[in-house]
Write a structure and sequence with these properties.
- About 45% of the residues lie in helices and about 15% in strands.
- By secondary structure, the protein is an alpha/beta fold.
- α5 packs parallel to α6, α6 runs parallel beside α7 and α10 packs across α12.
- It has a domain of about 220 residues: Rossmann fold, CATH 3.40.50.1100.
- The protein is globular and about 55 Å long.
- A six-stranded mixed beta sheet has the order 3-4-14-9-10-13, with helices on both faces. Strands 8-5-6-7-15 form a five-stranded parallel beta sheet, with helices on both faces.
- Its cofactor is pyridoxal 5'-phosphate.
- GO terms for molecular function: threonine synthase activity.
- Keywords: Lyase, Pyridoxal phosphate.
- One of its GO terms (biological process) is threonine biosynthetic process.
């Protein structure tokens, strides 16, 4: 498999070069040169596999022979051996037509562990095999940072710097990052929003000379390995459903702010997984909902919500979807992104909007509606949703039709967002690993939200 840029100015490259490049050198995002097509027989043969076995089959399609199969198997097995549930991503039934896919059984209790345990091991593998330096630079709205740090902390040949918006992540999310005191970890608390952090990351990676001089590698979902790893659990969730549920139309409702998780579902669907609807669940930062409903992509006023990991206006993976929406026309994508950079707004024509609405349904969940969903499901079925999962479930309740089955992605353990859950008078017991965080000292530095401020820190650290 080779990888190409959504903007068409990078020669096709292999899998390892793609994960090392992260953001394409022309400013675009890397995508596979073609999407493998799966037969019904293949899906049937995969349906009995364990999570690790399934991940190995899917990764093999995209890695080809760059990593020998036995070595790839070890990377996969090591990555998912750290999960607390034997199924890795178990599916639980909420109501007759609604299930949750629990993605929070990894080391940091968030769905990001599923991709980042693998990517961390993959970076370690590449560093050892090529005797190369890996300097990871990432931004987080809360969960990516802790998962990325956990994936590479203490690993020889790897250093990691994570930016997070100062005062705009949950207490547990902050503690998971900043109580790590390994020498190869730097946490920067940036004065601004996650969009500021993400903009800085993309602009530093677009500075190709700086990127190469300091050996910068991407951990955010601009890295194609993140997307590929996340496609696995769509297949696995579908295979876990009862036969009668699989016989119905199966939707996935995905809490999303950066478009990465739902793009992984879109990729799984394009590969041949029989997904009926991809429901895009947002919060009050609802730029993506407006795009699906009106064809207008334009950031609005930033709103702090009870689901802070989705408090994002500019979705970094949106460009990958545009590439497929416009028939893999790199020139068209380049023009659209240039327009967005110049005007801060993109409006697509009616025929493209019809195609978007065939691919996705969307619903923006209001703050109180999010809390209502948490309290309603806790009272009625005894299941505690975190605020992001609650957005996915609320969107499923709103948009799924009678007779359909909907799997809502549960992206984080509720203990990570206790501040929000306590607002409805619900008490929970922290897992032991999270409770222990409150006794540890923190290590972070507050910095200004400019490229130069971050560069100064990176030059010293790397």
């Amino acid at each position: 498999m080779e990888y190409i840029s959504t903007r068409g100015q990078v020669a096709p490259i292999g899998f390892i070069d793609a994960i090392l490049m992260g953001l394409a050198n022309d400013g675009g995002l890397l995508v596979p040169k073609y999407i493998p097509q799966l037969s019904a027989d293949t899906l049937q043969s995969w349906s009995k596999l364990s999570y690790s076995e399934l991940a190995l089959e899917i990764f093999s399609l995209y890695v080809n022979n760059e990593i020998p199969r036995d070595e790839l198997k070890k990377l996969v097995d090591d990555s998912y051996a750290t999960f607390r549930d034997e199924a890795v991503t178990p599916v639980k039934r909420l109501t007759e037509g609604t299930y949750v896919l629990e993605l929070f059984h990894g080391p940091t209790f968030a769905f990001k562990d599923i991709a980042l345990q693998f990517l961390g091991n993959l970076y370690g593998y590449v560093s050892r095999k090529t005797n190369s330096i890996i300097h990871i630079l990432g931004a987080t709205s809360g969960d990516t940072g802790a998962s990325a740090i956990e994936g590479v902390r203490g690993k020889e040949g790897i250093r990691i710097c994570i930016l997070h918006p100062h005062g705009k992540v949950s207490q547990v999310q902050e503690l998971q990052m900043t109580t790590v005191n390994d020498a190869n970890v730097l946490n920067l608390s940036v004065e601004g929003t996650f969009d500021d952090c993400q903009r800085i990351i993309k602009e530093l990676f677009a500075d190709v000379e700086f990127k190469h001089r300091y050996h910068l590698r991407a951990i955010n979902s601009i890295n194609i390995a993140r997307i590929l790893a996340q496609t696995v659990y769509y297949f696995y969730a579908y295979f876990q459903l009862p036969q009668e549920a699989q016989a119905a139309k199966v939707n996935f409702s995905v809490p999303t702010g950066n478009f990465g998780d739902i793009f992984a579902g879109y990729l799984a669907q394009k590969m041949g997984l029989p997904i009926n609807k991809l429901i895009l669940a947002t919060n009050e930062n609802n730029i993506l909902e407006r795009f699906v409903k009106e064809g207008v992509y334009q950031p609005g006023e930033f709103r702090g919500t009870y689901s802070p990991s989705m408090d994002i206006q500019v979705a970094s993976n949106f460009e990958r979807y545009l590439f497929y929406l416009y028939g893999e026309d790199a020139a068209a994508v380049t023009a659209i992104m240039a327009q967005f950079k110049a005007e801060g707004r993109v409006v697509i024509p009616a025929d493209k909007l019809a195609a978007v609405q065939a691919d996705f349904a969307a619903y923006g969940v209001q703050n109180e509606e999010c809390l209502d969903t948490i309290s309603d499901y806790h009272a009625q079925v005894g299941y505690l949703l975190d605020p992001h999962t609650a957005c996915g479930v609320a969107a499923a309740d709103k948009l799924a039709s009678a007779g359909e089955v909907t799997v809502a992605l549960s992206t984080a353990h509720p203990a990570k967002f206790d501040e929000s859950i306590r607002l409805r008078g619900i008490a929970q017991t922290y897992p032991e690993q999270i409770q222990a965080l409150f006794e540890k000292p923190q290590f972070q530095k507050v910095v200004g939200g400019s490229n130069e401020a971050i560069k100064d820190e990176l030059v010293t650290f790397f």
